[in-house]
């Protein structure tokens, strides 16, 4: 059974590290801001499969470090977690949700009505662009 629930910052770190920056030290994925964020985890039974972190400022939500375990990608778990994040953001009456997305993940976000709203740029060998979904 799939469940999504709030998790602690440290629960996100191993999966972030394995999936996003395996060649960097583990500390690279541990953000100072994590302690001001809201973290969600998607579980299959008790196994943590996908994580995302939400940071709210002035009624606007930024999400960061969305990661699904490599062997579990492409099975729809991320889409479920993103839909949950959207619902949660609406409940919290956020005006919009945005992220600095990896260009490789653009189609994933576009499927749930996020739009690219910037030029792309590169950091540590990865191409990014800003994406946004505004709520009415
Ligand atoms: C981006 C990421 C979080 C998406 O999570 P995920 O669990 O793989 O997401 P989904 O399985 O819902 O969707 C991924 C793709 O698989 C496809 N898919 C979903 N269910 C599927 C299924 N049952 N069969 C085949 N394909 C499927 C989706 O259509 C989607 O394709 P798209 O990228 O063209 O939209 C994940 O791929 C990841 O961790 N990537 C590496 C880190 C990263 O890039 N994070 C995002 C930073 S912005």
UniProtKB/TrEMBL annotation:
Keywords: Transferase
Pfam families in alphabetical order: Acetyltransf_10 (PF13673)
Gene Ontology molecular function terms on file: acyltransferase activity, transferring groups other than amino-acyl groups
InterPro entries, A to Z: Acyl_CoA_acyltransferase, GNAT_dom
Residue ranges of every copy of the N-acetyltransferase domain listed in the record: 2-133
Protein name: Acetyltransferase (GNAT) domain-containing protein
């Amino acid at each position: 059974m799939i469940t999504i629930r709030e998790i602690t910052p440290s629960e996100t770190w191993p999966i972030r590290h394995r999936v996003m920056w395996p060649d960097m030290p583990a500390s690279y994925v541990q953000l100072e801001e994590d302690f001001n964020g809201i973290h969600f985890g998607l579980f299959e039974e008790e196994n943590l499969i996908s994580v995302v972190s939400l940071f709210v400022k002035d009624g606007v939500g930024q999400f960061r470090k969305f990661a699904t375990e490599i062997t579990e990608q492409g099975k729809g778990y991320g889409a479920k977690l993103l839909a949950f994040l959207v619902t949660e953001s609406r409940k919290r009456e956020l005006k919009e949700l945005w992220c600095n997305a990896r260009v490789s993940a653009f189609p994933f976000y576009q499927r749930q009505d996020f739009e690219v709203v910037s030029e792309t740029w590169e950091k540590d060998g990865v191409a990014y662009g800003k994406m946004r979904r505004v709520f009415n």
